[in-house]
Amino acid sequence: MLHQSHEEERAPGVDESMARVVRIIVEQYDGDVKAFVESNRYRIEANRRTKAASDHGDEAALRKCPPTTKIIGRISRVHYS
Amino acid sequence: MPAHDKDYRENFARSLFLTGKITQEAAHALSPRIKELRAASGDPITLYIDSPGGSSAVAEGIRFLIKAPDQDGRRCRLITVAIGTAASAAADLLALGDYAIAEPQADIRYHGSRQAFEQLLTFEGATSVAANLQEANERLALRLARSSFRRIIWRVVQLEDAIEKFRDGPEGLEELVEALTAKFTPQNAMLLREAIAKQKSLQEVQTAADNYLKKRKNVAQWPTKQLEPELVRALVDYRSRLHKEDDWLLSRTGMREVASDFSLIHDYASQTKDLDAQLEVYGSLFLTQAQSAEFKSKSEEEHKVYLESHAADKLEVLWYFVVSLCRLLQTKDYQLTPEEAYWLGVVDEVTGSGLQSDREMIEMILSTESATRKP
């Protein structure tokens, strides 16, 4: 037999999160769920690309640096010569 | 870095594996780890499932142990993840997760409650077993419907043209369900068509009973003891009118039909509290453009009343449909792909599928908020 009396309750915070999603969809997207999802996906993808491009720029800057062994070698020469 | 919400994410560090048959021994093996995770924090617990099923009572026991409150009343959220087979009691357990995830290789199977016997059965014994199985199926169906309902809401609002018609009125439900069937194999699409037929007959029974009871004075104030026999009279009246051309008698199949109608109405009516809570959260998704504009112009206090008069009827027929669907899932064998389980409201998310999920929507909002907070 299943335990009928042990029904759990949903966490109120979680329902509140979903209520917030619904409010934003209704208020800002006229209830159009697809428009909400697609515009956010687009924005997140655009942010990701911008970040990737800036990370790529850092990598380019790093590539201009001399290899670590050379740096250590130079420090060693300064220290121990 | 995109925002992550731990309430919607699997977490291997706080996880359990339910593999193989669901037996009392399997539950005993999991119990110490469950207690350990609950004692460590109130964060969600992830349950990975690869099981052909087993005892429904044991599966429920595992779920209750994970979600039981501690001495401070704190409860852990249950995230279920199908990593292989999730059949029978394991499929129910998957769906009953607060957030249910299916991996693309998952195989999800449903069938009604079964009971194995070693001894020979008498007529009385068989009748009692049949009644128990029916009761178990009913209870599981309603529990499944409660967790699937909010998921189905998010599925149907994605069905663009059909949802517009449904927003115009509850009579658009059939078209909405027809649009949903396009997501299923022909065999599983039949499940949805059968569910809509059942939903219609339930609505008919409900309307007939309402019309009969309306003729009684102050019926709303009647105690249950007085109301129930009157409801039986209403149902006998409805069935005898329905079969007026047939040789229909209570002593043949009639009593069974009336009893079945009675439990239907009784079960559905007991779920209205859930429906009220869902109406408050999701009701505004079922307003037409004009209603939505009017709704936005109203105060917070007026919102509830507005939703009751403009969205409750749509949510109610959708709820009846979901219950009918879950009842059918408990009667025959159904094998679902992860995507079908998603469209049926059994799971919230299919990893790597690109299908919209609660997690994605919540994290979208969190990431917008964190971006606007940055200087």
Could you explain how this protein is built, in words?
The complex is a heterodimer of chains A (81) and B (375). Helices cover 78% and strands 0% of the residues of chain A. By secondary structure, chain A is an all-alpha fold. Chain A has one domain (12-80). The radius of gyration of chain A is 27 Å and the shape is elongated. Mean pLDDT of chain A is 69; it is low at 1-9 and 64-81. Chain B folds into two domains: 1-111 and 333-375, 2-enoyl-CoA Hydratase, Chain A, domain 1, CATH 3.90.226; 162-332, no CATH class. Chain B contains 15 helices and seven strands. Chain B has helices spanning 24-40, 56-67, 89-95, 123-156, 160-168, 173-181, 186-214, 224-242, 250-269, 272-282, 289-296, 300-310, 312-329, 338-343, 358-373, and strands at residues 15-19, 45-51, 78-87, 99-102, 107-110, 334-336, 349-350. In chain B, strand 3 (78-87), helix 3 and strand 4 (99-102) form a beta-alpha-beta unit. Chain B starts with 14 loop residues before the first strand and ends with a helix. The model of chain B has no long low-confidence stretch (mean pLDDT 90). The chains are: A mainly alpha (81), B alpha/beta (375).
> Considering DSSP H and I runs of 4 or more, what fraction of the residues of chain A is helical?
over 70%
The number of distinct helices of chain B, counting runs of at least 4 residues, comes to 15
Strand segment count of chain A: 0
The low-pLDDT segments of chain A are 1-9, 64-81
Query: Poorly predicted ranges of chain B (pLDDT <50, ≥5 residues)?
Result: none
Most extensive chain-chain interface: A-B, 35 and 43 residues
**SSE order of chain A, one letter for each helix or strand:** HHH
